[in-house]
Amino acid sequence: MRPLITTVRSLKELATGLSPDAVSASPLLFEHAGTHSDVLVNADDKLDEQRIVLMRDTNTSERHVPDNLADLRRDVISRMASFAERARAHGPIVLPRGWHQYKHNNLVAFFATSRRTVQAIRWIVEVLPGERSDVVFWTTTDSDYQPSLEEFEVAKPPMPPNWEADWKTAIDKGAERIERAQRNQPSDVEISLEPLEQSTTKGWTYQQWLETVTDDQRSFIEASTAKSIRLRGPAGSGKTLALTLKAIREVLKAREDDLDLRVLVVTHSWSLATEISDSLDSMGIGNLSEVDIFPLLEIATTISPQYVNDSSGFSLIGNDSFSGKQAQLDEIRDVLDDFIAGDWITFESGVSESLRARFTSTTADDRVALAWDLLVEFGSVIGAAAIFPGAGAEARYLNLPRASWMLPLQCRNDLQVTFHLYTKFMDSLDARSLLTSDQVLADLLSHLETHAWNRARRTQGYDLIFVDEFHLFSPLERQVLHYLSRDVSVYPRVFMALDPRQSPSAAFIGFAADATRSSSALSEDGLGDVTNFELTAVHRFTPQILGLIKHIHHEFPTLDLGQEWDINFGTVESTQDPGPPPRLITAASRMGEEDDIVRAVHELYPTGRLALAIVDSRHWWRFSDLASRIGHSGRFHVSTISGRSDVEGLGYRRRGLVVGPAEYLAGLQFGTVLVAGVPDMEVNRTPTNERTRLLSLLYLALSRAQQQVRVFVNDDDGGMADVLVRAVTNGQLVRDRGSQV
Ligand SMILES: Nc1ncnc2c1ncn2[C@@H]1O[C@H](COP(=O)(O)OP(=O)(O)OP(=O)(O)O)[C@@H](O)[C@H]1O
């Protein structure tokens, strides 16, 4: 096969488990056949990016890894990306001990994967001289072929001809594609969905909406802006819409009164920011230049001086994207493996029995589960509390209050071992010149506390701040909001829409509840007195879907939610006409399940926008593969969504079938939602934190649907989860026998 030229971002996207055939359905990736090599780039890649050249002389079937590593493609690709990141960091390359590296001049050899069974396979890689530290993956060695690096250096083949020209063409073409998408001109077949009918605002004007909203929504829209307001309601109750209408109302009022008003709408993702922006545009009130709509992280990187003029070469880890999360998870697994082979011995006797069992387990699945829990602990507990390694950091961590959703750590030693691993993890990020979004926000906070910002905020700050999906913001992110206001003499006026049940990592709920437990906590938060409004009617979905969602709600383990956060689901009603009952389709095998899904796509595609939501992202690889197969049939528009980054906002919304892990569908809606990858959540077998997370994702997936819901399960993966069995028993789900092959 011809050589492949690619980048870290592209490899990370592939390392989520994206099937090679699904590349063409990804709005993030772009393939180009050059004169002598193939090029695979990510939409965010620029011309001066570090390049990764993969020589594929011996490849016959596999496109992204050597044929003999096909079974471990995900692991292998992830390590390739991790190596390239380390190569481009300043200073000498630091690889984890477990990689067993050799070096000779610019050549490095290291194990291609962490799996012990195949460790004998090593990469021979070269880091090319120059600013960008391009990396060439020359070949792999195994027991039959083991040249020394010295020998290899002498016999090394030349670089592929024209590779730099092929690279440049690919980047130019990729940029053209994005530009086309931004102009909303799909380059392929046009589809016949009517965008306005499908949108949140149904094509109605602002006036029409004011006449339609419920009394609850109206009270919020017309409420005084003298105080901050918390708007709570279940999924689909019209929170986003009410926020949008209130923002418009305040702008129009200020115009009438001849006041200068600056309004900020903060979201968690670009896709929702784009959707709100489209809603504003479609309401027939012309240009609203007073309103800015951005994801919070975007604001952080545009006003934080460290990032505006950043020359350190550090880049932000995409930990809001699935690929970023997966890359961190792989890194934590490496850190864990190194730790267990080394320092663990000094901690072993002190930690609790249950944690010890997790560290000493030799099952690969247990190791992954532990890495996953650590990822949540590092990001949502330690990072969210802005604790970074350094003097006094461990003591602060030891004193943090623990909540039920967190990793159960029973004694001081458990916490210490966790903090030790956290420090190692942060060191490994440093070795790759990576920053987390928590670090960016913590830096932003310190900037916001300076006199310089205190002066700047008078012009750059905002009078009113609207926050959608507030439940997705970490405590750290929430603190940032206060400083974005313009007038320092009054409390910031923040209007937050939230539904704590939709917090997929389940991570922020505990903190949020802690913060609200004492009534003075909110004023300490810097918001002064906060008024509560509650929405009790859902407008998105039918009473049948609401019935199923209420059932899921009642399955949630007790979260100790502060009273102010819990929504009384008993009183919630749907304003939609009745629709078909949600269905559960049970197949005998994975293959059968996939057939069932394909059949459903054929049947439902003509009815409007469809989503296939994957509840447990560990099943993502399988469904991304299915997505590509459906896409390749040529009859359907399929796009995959696996992150919150900007480019996804471009292409997918007008497309027919959107496939993605449930958490990335937050804030969006579809005519029909097909739900798959629902794992066993049995109380006795699933820790509370895991169960909460999965139920939250299931709730999120189901609540994206307007008309129909179909849930797919198969016997290979354990059949129906108990929560679904009970829904069938209670009549909220109708069971159909799916394919029995
Ligand atoms: N009063 C209303 N009458 C009719 N339709 C409404 C009303 N309020 C909202 N809707 C519609 O209900 C749907 C859901 O609204 P919206 O997205 O604002 O809900 P949400 O509470 O933000 O949901 P989620 O939390 O799940 O993102 C939209 O299609 C919107 O147009």
What does this protein look like?
By secondary structure, the chain is an alpha/beta fold. It folds into four domains: 4-182, no CATH class; 296-312 and 436-498, no CATH class; 315-432, no CATH class; 544-737, 3-Layer(aba) Sandwich (Rossmann fold), CATH 3.40.50. The strands form five sheets. The chain has an eight-stranded mixed beta sheet with strand order 2-3-1-4-8-7-6-5. Strands 21-22-20-23-24-19-25 form a seven-stranded parallel beta sheet, sandwiched between helices. Helix 1 (8-14) crosses helix 12 and helix 10 (296-303) crosses helix 18. The protein is globular and about 80 Å long. The two termini are 36 Å apart. Adenosine-5'-triphosphate (ATP) binds at residues 200, 202, 212-214, 217, 233, 235-241, 499, 539-540, 667, 669, 703. Pfam families: UvrD-helicase. ATP binds at residues 233-240. This is UvrD-like helicase ATP-binding domain-containing protein. It comes from Actinophytocola xinjiangensis.
